[in-house]
Write a structure and sequence with these properties.
The structure is a single chain. It contains 1 helix and 9 strands; from the N terminus they run αβββββββββ. The protein is α+β, with helices and mostly antiparallel strands and 139 residues long. It has a 5-stranded antiparallel beta sheet, with no helix packed on it. Strands 5-6-9-8 form a 4-stranded mixed beta sheet, with no helix packed on it. A hairpin with a 7-residue loop joins strand 2 and strand 3. The longest helix has 34 residues. The termini are far apart.
């Protein structure tokens, strides 16, 4: 009788561990699906004068329920563009945006005056950022 109880307890413990492991894998899988549900298309990579950084202008598409957005990320030269929102600038829609370095650690982001922006920071990856509104959207 005692051996049978031990076997039942082992089966219950192994079953519970299996359920917990499958649950953890499911949660991790959902996180991966959610985080990679967007696609980035690089439009331009502009290297800083000292070659240490790159400004990457890209279009981000997160599926049918959201609009495309134009974004800018500042990364170290040679670094891949992460599948994340831009760390420097995010325009709410497809917007003509240009990145121009005016010093090794100083970047201008040129955007149309009427472009609705969702994010604009004063520095990213150790680079100072200045936003330059351009009246003519052809820049």
């Amino acid at each position: 009788m005692l051996d049978r109880m031990k076997r039942v307890v082992k089966v219950v413990i192994v079953s519970l561990l299996g359920v917990v492991a499958l649950g953890a894998l499911g949660i991790a899988g959902m996180g991966w699906i959610i985080s990679s549900g967007c696609a980035n298309t690089i439009q331009a990579r502009v290297r800083s004068p000292d070659g240490a950084h790159e400004a990457i202008v890209f279009e981000r598409d997160c599926g049918a329920t959201t609009d495309y957005s134009t974004q800018v990320a500042v990364v170290e030269t040679g670094e891949e563009l992460p599948n994340d929102p831009g760390n420097a600038y995010i325009a709410a829609h497809r917007t003509p945006v240009e990145a121009h370095w005016h010093a090794p650690a100083a970047l201008d982001i040129r955007h149309p005056t009427d472009a609705p922006s969702m994010r604009g920071v004063v520095s990213a990856a150790g680079v100072a950022i200045r936003y330059v509104p351009v009246v003519d959207s052809t820049q």
